[in-house]
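Session log. Operator J.P. requested a structure for one protein chain; no other inputs attached. Running the standard single-chain path with C-alpha coordinate output.
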Amino acid sequence: MKFSENSVITIVTAGTTDPDPGCSSTTDTTEDSETPTPASCEIEVGLFGGDKRFAGLATSGCGVLKGIWFRPPGTATDCLFKFGNDDAQDCSVKAGTAGASFALTNQDITLGTHLAADATCRPVTVALLREDGSVWADRVDFC
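Structure written below.
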Protein backbone atom coordinates (compact mmCIF):
# COMPACT_ATOMS: atom_id res chain seq x y z
CA MET A 1 0.00 0.00 0.00
CA LYS A 2 1.38 3.38 -0.97
CA PHE A 3 -0.05 6.84 -1.26
CA SER A 4 0.03 8.14 -4.85
CA GLU A 5 1.43 11.52 -5.86
CA ASN A 6 -2.17 12.81 -5.97
CA SER A 7 -3.02 11.64 -2.44
CA VAL A 8 -4.52 13.89 0.18
CA ILE A 9 -1.71 14.04 2.75
CA THR A 10 -1.80 15.71 6.14
CA ILE A 11 1.01 15.60 8.65
CA VAL A 12 -0.49 14.77 12.03
CA THR A 13 -0.12 17.53 14.60
CA ALA A 14 -0.98 17.79 18.26
CA GLY A 15 -4.61 18.12 19.28
CA THR A 16 -7.42 16.65 21.29
CA THR A 17 -8.71 13.16 20.67
CA ASP A 18 -12.10 11.51 20.45
CA PRO A 19 -12.59 8.71 21.32
CA ASP A 20 -10.04 8.49 24.13
CA PRO A 21 -7.18 6.46 22.61
CA GLY A 22 -5.53 6.08 26.02
CA CYS A 23 -8.33 3.84 27.31
CA SER A 24 -7.26 0.26 27.86
CA SER A 25 -10.79 -1.12 28.34
CA THR A 26 -14.41 -0.13 28.90
CA THR A 27 -13.70 0.08 32.65
CA ASP A 28 -10.75 2.47 32.20
CA THR A 29 -11.87 5.79 33.72
CA THR A 30 -8.72 7.79 32.99
CA GLU A 31 -9.20 10.63 30.54
CA ASP A 32 -6.66 12.31 28.32
CA SER A 33 -3.90 9.89 29.34
CA GLU A 34 -2.39 10.03 25.85
CA THR A 35 0.24 12.55 24.79
CA PRO A 36 0.68 14.29 21.43
CA THR A 37 2.92 12.57 18.91
CA PRO A 38 6.43 14.12 18.96
CA ALA A 39 7.85 15.71 15.81
CA SER A 40 10.37 12.85 15.52
CA CYS A 41 7.46 10.48 14.75
CA GLU A 42 6.07 11.28 11.32
CA ILE A 43 2.53 10.20 10.49
CA GLU A 44 0.83 10.84 7.17
CA VAL A 45 -2.86 10.31 6.54
CA GLY A 46 -4.38 10.20 3.09
CA LEU A 47 -5.98 8.25 0.28
CA PHE A 48 -4.17 5.31 -1.28
CA GLY A 49 -3.76 5.64 -5.04
CA GLY A 50 -6.24 8.51 -5.12
CA ASP A 51 -9.05 6.06 -4.29
CA LYS A 52 -11.67 8.08 -2.35
CA ARG A 53 -12.76 4.88 -0.59
CA PHE A 54 -9.33 3.67 0.57
CA ALA A 55 -7.98 5.82 3.40
CA GLY A 56 -5.11 5.20 5.74
CA LEU A 57 -1.94 6.27 7.43
CA ALA A 58 1.78 5.67 7.27
CA THR A 59 4.28 6.06 10.14
CA SER A 60 7.99 6.79 10.01
CA GLY A 61 10.55 7.00 12.80
CA CYS A 62 8.09 6.36 15.65
CA GLY A 63 10.26 4.00 17.70
CA VAL A 64 9.05 0.73 19.19
CA LEU A 65 5.28 0.23 18.95
CA LYS A 66 2.85 -2.57 19.82
CA GLY A 67 -0.36 -1.20 18.35
CA ILE A 68 -1.90 1.37 16.04
CA TRP A 69 -5.39 2.60 15.34
CA PHE A 70 -7.11 5.04 13.04
CA ARG A 71 -10.60 6.58 13.11
CA PRO A 72 -11.03 7.11 9.33
CA PRO A 73 -13.02 9.80 7.49
CA GLY A 74 -15.95 7.47 6.84
CA THR A 75 -17.31 4.04 7.76
CA ALA A 76 -14.50 1.47 7.75
CA THR A 77 -15.39 -1.85 6.10
CA ASP A 78 -12.07 -3.68 6.53
CA CYS A 79 -8.54 -3.14 7.75
CA LEU A 80 -5.07 -4.00 6.43
CA PHE A 81 -1.65 -3.16 7.83
CA LYS A 82 1.97 -3.94 7.08
CA PHE A 83 5.44 -3.41 8.46
CA GLY A 84 7.91 -1.75 6.08
CA ASN A 85 7.84 -3.64 2.78
CA ASP A 86 6.28 -6.83 4.22
CA ASP A 87 3.03 -8.26 2.89
CA ALA A 88 -0.21 -6.77 4.21
CA GLN A 89 -2.03 -8.49 7.07
CA ASP A 90 -5.64 -8.25 8.18
CA CYS A 91 -6.49 -6.12 11.18
CA SER A 92 -9.80 -5.34 12.85
CA VAL A 93 -12.57 -2.76 12.67
CA LYS A 94 -14.45 -2.03 15.89
CA ALA A 95 -16.89 0.80 16.52
CA GLY A 96 -15.73 2.65 13.40
CA THR A 97 -12.04 2.40 14.23
CA ALA A 98 -9.47 0.36 12.25
CA GLY A 99 -6.60 -1.00 14.29
CA ALA A 100 -4.02 -3.66 14.99
CA SER A 101 -2.04 -5.02 17.92
CA PHE A 102 1.22 -6.83 17.24
CA ALA A 103 4.53 -7.95 18.71
CA LEU A 104 6.90 -5.08 19.48
CA THR A 105 8.34 -3.55 16.31
CA ASN A 106 10.40 -0.52 15.35
CA GLN A 107 9.50 -0.82 11.67
CA ASP A 108 7.46 1.78 9.81
CA ILE A 109 3.77 0.83 9.69
CA THR A 110 1.13 1.42 7.04
CA LEU A 111 -2.55 0.91 7.84
CA GLY A 112 -5.42 1.20 5.37
CA THR A 113 -9.16 0.77 5.41
CA HIS A 114 -11.74 0.66 2.67
CA LEU A 115 -14.71 2.94 3.31
CA ALA A 116 -18.41 2.31 2.63
CA ALA A 117 -18.59 5.66 0.77
CA ASP A 118 -16.16 8.34 -0.41
CA ALA A 119 -13.98 9.84 2.33
CA THR A 120 -15.37 13.03 3.84
CA CYS A 121 -13.53 16.10 5.04
CA ARG A 122 -13.65 15.74 8.80
CA PRO A 123 -11.37 15.23 11.79
CA VAL A 124 -9.67 11.83 12.11
CA THR A 125 -7.87 10.35 15.10
CA VAL A 126 -4.60 8.42 14.98
CA ALA A 127 -3.20 6.59 18.01
CA LEU A 128 0.06 4.70 18.48
CA LEU A 129 0.46 2.30 21.41
CA ARG A 130 4.06 2.43 22.58
CA GLU A 131 6.11 -0.42 24.05
CA ASP A 132 5.66 0.92 27.60
CA GLY A 133 1.86 0.99 27.21
CA SER A 134 1.62 4.76 26.84
CA VAL A 135 -0.24 6.23 23.88
CA TRP A 136 0.66 8.95 21.40
CA ALA A 137 -2.46 10.33 19.75
CA ASP A 138 -3.50 13.21 17.55
CA ARG A 139 -6.61 14.49 15.80
CA VAL A 140 -6.41 16.31 12.46
CA ASP A 141 -8.65 17.37 9.62
CA PHE A 142 -8.68 14.89 6.74
CA CYS A 143 -8.56 17.23 3.71
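Operator note: The first strand starts at residue 10 and ends at 11.
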